[in-house]
Design a protein that fits this description.
heterodimer, A: 542 residues, alpha/beta, Methane Monooxygenase Hydroxylase, Chain G, domain 1, five-stranded mixed beta sheet, B: 321 residues, alpha+beta, Ubiquitin-like (UB roll), Fumarate Reductase Iron-sulfur Protein, Chain B, domain 2, 3 domains, 14 helices
């Protein structure tokens, strides 16, 4: 069996940047993805990248804003690296052809995103994600990095306490196979498909997180889920922060600004966690019912919309039949980014030698309890690169060892077992998924409480029991997407369990984790990260 | 809202042809075709296979045919589709039925992997010089953003009339990606890319039918990208022979006479001194003459009324570009 130097799993920003870096560092690299890289969730990022290049800005100010946004939990060394290397990363992307919008001098233009003290986010219209993804894929092609697409990760191959490869389900053929390598980088993104209302793509099912978690790697800070304040109700499709940066106001049905009602001037550009929490409180009536909130973009000029909000405007026109600058657009917070993930060090290493993680599936503590708008993409670039170099260096000194096909055979058996359970019962995987998304929305959302979290924990456990009883129509075959959904649901249940357990454990309010029963930040007890371990079938927080 | 979807079902592990099945679903007023497919998978048959990812029109994954027309499922509402469906039923088929793999999944490899990569569509730039970004005007960036909005959904290639008769033609999607690179002022590989794009079954094979632009769900206008590539190739002195002769003669004829001189176009396309080529035109010319399509001698072709105005437009355009 061929032994790769570096195997990268995931074709979003972080995965592709890590793959490119490892290749340029001299490693032989293969990129394994669940879908073609251009179809990754990263494509739907409307925002941009933070870099302190604007007049009057400084790296120190960027660091300060990032630390303040993280609400006391940021690792200062990691923040420093993030902000200091931003310029190199953004200029590299620009030279590779990302069409970042320009000012009158032909240099990068910036907008101010939530939590930043100055306009610092380099943007490309309102489709930076799509453009950056395209440019990174161009470099993947240029460097002749082979891409194995339509591969669903099932498990990591751990032998002699080292990660030596990955076992995946090849979706087009239905075969369960092993790819062997000296180093494996997980860059599989978040797991926000566990929520009913999310901005995440269908692919965000926590496949990499679950694979590492089952191997005893702890997940860190899973309680911190960032909710984006402005998404279309019921869909989770995001109206970018750019709209608020350019003058969009959050209002009630009488067009009264929420900032005035709540007494928080400039609410629209406060940190996302603050904005989402104030909105959720305002949307809950005294009798426990709901009231609507809206985004009013009527103050944004047409030429500005054409330059900086054209994708959003087109989406609203196509899907809601409304013009962005006319009338009120209904909005609600949605699950946007998992800040928690596989615990990694500064260079992406996990506790298992040979296993690395980067991007949305990982957590190093850089962003603490809340991520500054525009820092997510930057994280993928800076730490995707650091992980690429570290994995490449590790692979160069590692000694390859042939792995047995028994790893794949175990997975085949477990998938065949799903078929042997039969499909005669009334329950189904789609019903379980729908119930999971509902309970996560209702009980583990923006505002949390012990009682609701206990209820969620109980429900997730019962959903796991139900999951263990439902079956599949068949194993293998061509594009058996029913089987893929089943595997993904198993991953989501694991990650949901870890998230609820972590949220229950942190008895304080900080950043994106707001507990109505513990509404204050408690530095004495909780100025620390949570780590959740999977022990047997339980989620144990330490 | 209650809707019936008529979906193409095909399992290559069981059958060779496939057939359509109808599913009644109840969805929100603003639901998209992609939402509808998810609902069918959830409430009727979890084995239904289709592609879809970002749900917001930026990843290009969910391209299908809705009521016989190519579109992206996440940006097409069922409410609109119902109005155009036969008897209120919305039909959903693979974008390329001939390339079907499973249900609505079809083989995207030719345009998404092979033809795309074959054009070497990446910017080559000097990463070493300076610590700051290159100066580029925002208007150039805006144009780049429009051209780069292509999501590789495949709709333009599906509509292309040349690919319909020659599958080896590289197609509008890949050509647009080359244009994206050569129009980028940060790229230093323009000439090499233009030379490559001018090779066989590439930029000169387009027949100007504008189907690519008409099929594009974004405002990418791939047909215009192909025209721009041709102009750039000519300006760089790249490309020769019939396609370039044809291009130049066409423009000269319209510029000078206000309309197309077909005889002159045919002769100049072959070249005045290309005797074998001109001889090949003989039978065609004779048939055209018999049908009164080829006035001879060619100078009988008269200027059209208003030709001077057209010439002024040409001159202005040439000065400004």
């Amino acid at each position: 069996m061929k032994n790769h130097d570096v195997i990268v799993i995931g074709g979003g920003f972080a995965g592709m940047n890590a793959a490119i870096t490892a290749k340029l560092n001299g490693s032989e690299v293969v990129l394994i993805t669940k879908q073609h890289p251009l179809r990754s969730h990263s494509s739907s990022s409307h925002s941009g990248v933070n870099v302190a290049l604007n007049d009057g800005d400084s790296v120190e100010q960027h660091i300060q804003d990032t630390v303040e946004s993280g609400d006391g939990l940021c690792d200062s060394d990691l923040v420093e690296k993030l902000c200091r290397e931003a310029q190199e990363e953004v200029v590299r992307l620009d030279r590779w052809g990302v069409p970042f919008s320009r000012n009158e001098s032909g240099l990068l233009d910036f907008v101010r995103f939530g939590g930043s003290s100055i306009a610092r986010t380099a943007f490309a219209g309102d489709a930076a994600g799509h453009f950056i993804l395209q440019v990174l894929y161009e470099q993947i092609m240029r460097l002749e990095i082979p891409v194995l697409q339509d591969c669903l990760v099932l498990s990591l191959v751990i032998s002699d306490d080292k990660c030596r490869g990955v076992c995946y389900y090849d979706i087009p053929t239905g075969k369960t196979v092993i790819e062997q390598g000296n180093a494996v980088i997980l860059a599989t993104g978040g797991a926000n498909q566990m929520f009913g209302t999310t901005s995440s793509a269908f692919s965000a099912t926590g496949d990499g997180m679950a694979a590492a978690y089952r191997q005893g790697v702890p997940l860190m800070d899973m309680e911190f889920v960032q909710f984006h304040p402005t998404s279309l109700p019921g869909t989770g499709l995001v109206i970018t922060e750019m709209a608020r940066s350019l003058g969009g106001r959050i209002v009630d049905k009488n067009n009264k600004a929420l900032s005035a009602k709540s007494g928080l001037k400039g609410l629209e550009l406060m940190n996302r966690n603050v904005c989402s929490q104030v909105m959720t409180q305002a949307m809950t009536t005294k009798d426990g019912g709901n009231t609507e909130l809206f985004l009013d973009c009527s103050g944004i000029k047409k030429d500005v919309i054409k330059r900086q909000l054209y994708e959003t405007a087109a989406m609203l026109k196509d899907l809601q039949g409304v013009k962005i600058a006319e009338g009120l657009i209904p909005i609600t917070p949605c699950a946007h980014r998992s800040l928690g993930g596989i615990k990694v060090s500064a260079n992406g290493a996990t506790q298992i030698p040979g296993l690395f993680a980067t991007g949305g599936c990982s957590c190093s503590g850089t962003h603490g309890a809340n991520q500054l708008g525009g820092n997510a993409l930057l994280d993928n670039l800076v730490y995707g690169r650091a992980t690429g170099i570290a994995s490449s260096d590790y692979a160069a000194s590692a000694v390859a060892k042939e792995v047995s096909d028994s790893f794949a055979e175990d997975q085949r058996k477990s998938l065949r077992n799903l078929v042997s359970r039969g499909t005669s019962g009334k329950d189904s995987q789609t019903a379980i998924r729908s119930d999971l998304q509902k309970v996560m929305n209702d009980k583990v959302g923006v505002i949390r409480h012990k009682d609701a979290l206990m209820e969620a924990q109980k429900t997730v456990e019962s959903l796991q029991d139900r999951y263990d009883k439902v079956g599949l129509q068949k194993y293998g075959g061509t594009f058996n997407t029913e089987l893929c959904s089943m595997v993904e649901l198993g991953n989501l249940l694991d990650i949901a369990g870890a998230t609820v357990a972590s949220a229950l454990a942190r008895t304080e309010s900080r950043g994106n984790h707001y507990r109505s029963d513990y509404p204050k930040r408690d530095d004495k007890q909780w100025k620390k990260h949570t780590l959740v371990y999977r022990e047997n079938s339980s989620h144990v927080v330490k | 809202m209650e809707v019936t979807l008529k979906i193409f079902r095909y399992d290559p592990d069981k059958e060779t042809k496939g057939n359509h099945s109808e599913y009644a679903i109840d969805v929100d007023e603003n639901a998209t075709v992609l939402d509808g497919l998810m609902e069918v998978k959830s409430s009727h048959d979890s084995s239904l296979s289709f592609k879809g990812s970002c749900r917001t029109g930026l990843c290009g994954d969910c391209s299908v045919q809705v009521n016989g027309k190519g579109t992206v499922a996440c940006r097409t509402t069922l409410a609109k589709a119902v109005k155009k469906g036969k008897d209120g039923v919305v039909s959903v088929d693979p974008l390329y039925p001939a390339k079907k793999i499973k249900d609505l999944i079809y083989n995207q490899n030719d345009f998404l992997l092979e033809k795309y990569k074959s054009m070497k569509p990446w910017v080559v730039s000097n990463l070493a010089h300076g610590a700051r970004e290159d100066e580029v005007s925002d208007s150039t960036i805006k144009e780049l953003q429009r051209v780069m909005s292509c999501t590789m959904c495949g709709l333009c290639d599906q509509g292309c009339l040349v690919i319909a008769v020659d599958e080896q033609y590289v197609g509008p999607a890949a050509l647009n990606k080359v244009y994206r690179v050569v129009m980028d002022p940060r790229d230093s590989s323009k000439r090499e890319k233009l030379e490559f794009a001018s090779g066989a079954r590439k930029v000169w094979d387009c027949t100007h039918c504008f189907e690519a632009t008409a099929h594009c769900p974004k405002d990418v206008r791939p047909t215009e990208s192909i025209f721009e590539l041709r102009d750039m190739a000519i300006k760089h002195g790249i490309g020769h022979g019939r396609p370039v002769n044809h291009h130049k003669s066409f423009a000269a004829s319209v510029k000078n006479d206000g309309w197309l001189d077909e005889t002159r176009l045919a002769i100049e396309t072959e070249g005045w001194f290309n005797l074998p080529g001109l001889l090949k035109l003989g039978p065609v010319g004779l048939r055209a003459f018999m049908k009164r399509k080829a006035p001879l001698p060619y100078f009988l072709h008269k200027k059209r009324k208003g030709a001077d105005a057209i010439k002024r437009i040409f001159n202005k355009w040439e000065r400004e570009s």
